[in-house]
Amino acid sequence: MAAALRVLSRAGLHRSPGPLRRGFRASPPAAVQVTVRDALNQALDEELERDERVFLLGEEVAQYDGAYKISRGLWKKYGDKRIIDTPISEMGFTGIAVGAAMAGLRPICEFMTFNFSMQAIDQVINSAAKTYYMSSGMVSVPVVFRGPNGTSAGVGAQHSQCFAAWYGHCPGLKVVSPWSSEDARGLLKSAIRDDNPVVMLEHELMYGVPFEMSEETQSKDFLVPIGKAKIERPGTHITLVSHSRPVGHCLEAAAVLAKEGVECEVINLRTIRPMDVETIEASIMKTNNLVTVEGGWPQFGVGAEICARIMEGPAFNYLDAPAVRVTGADVPMPYAKILEENCIPQVKDIIFAVKKTLNI
């Protein structure tokens, strides 16, 4: 055997495998930068290819490639039967999507903005969310309602509000709110495969933001489980809980505070309903302090729900100070840029809340 190897080696046909050479370590595959927009596009493409029951409908999703280019290239690839342009009638095409789901298909219904979903809220709540219960489990409604949610930039009061609390209030719906490209890709694929109606609240200002994605998170089999939060940054002094775009603000605030010796644990909720209270409780039991951050209004908001759950649960006894909420201002969104900025939680607001809670 040794002689045979020597012959092969002289002929250049035998080489020791790289990782066995002394001092050599195989480097992991390099992460690549993927925007939230491209992550959503990839997820749609893969799920349309995987399951012929999946189709996308909404305003300008087909020939125009989507108002935000989320569905770029899909109409050319899958055609009119799978990528369907609709009239400007949210109540109409949302009803079509819900009916198709009841009939066994798996529609993805895109709202150009969730502000326009108010036109179709009867279909989302009374038709989609309640049918499984009212049919005694005989009729499932596997539909995804998705599109940009929350504050935009310079579009006024009727286009800049967060509907996380609105839809999170309703039993029968699952509600997800991604921040990163990994969140967007993994949650959308999970939502499409789920047998329940899922509301996916994306953020318009995040579509063009790139995030590093590993080879694993780009796999066709990669899913982000609905109902499970993610600890984006571990810490010991205070817990910051957020969802969607403000998660990035929390991480920025945590980086600033770390220079002052304050270590924040940042939790990315990912899912509004069902809410992963266990992860929040475990964090509070370690840090003994809580600040919630969201872009929505304060009254009956996501932060208010988190505070109530903590008040009622075992983690309350671990708090060293009252929980603090950082939210959008309790007003309709102004159009003027400087007023708009003052209505949206900023990094400085989070830092102020943390210092107030820790009394520093």
What do you see in this structure?
GO terms for molecular function: metal ion binding; pyruvate dehydrogenase (acetyl-transferring) activity. This is Pyruvate dehydrogenase E1 component subunit beta. One of its GO terms (cellular component) is pyruvate dehydrogenase complex. The chain is an alpha/beta fold and 360 residues long. It folds into two domains: 182 residues, Thiamin diphosphate (ThDP)-binding fold, Pyr/PP domains (Rossmann fold); 129 residues, Rossmann fold, CATH 3.40.50. It is built from 13 helices and 14 strands. A seven-stranded mixed β-sheet has the order 3-2-4-5-7-6-12, sandwiched between helices. The protein has a five-stranded mixed β-sheet with strand order 9-11-10-13-14, sandwiched between helices. A two-stranded antiparallel ribbon has the order 1-8. Strand 6, helix 8 and strand 7 form a beta-alpha-beta unit. The longest helix has 15 residues.
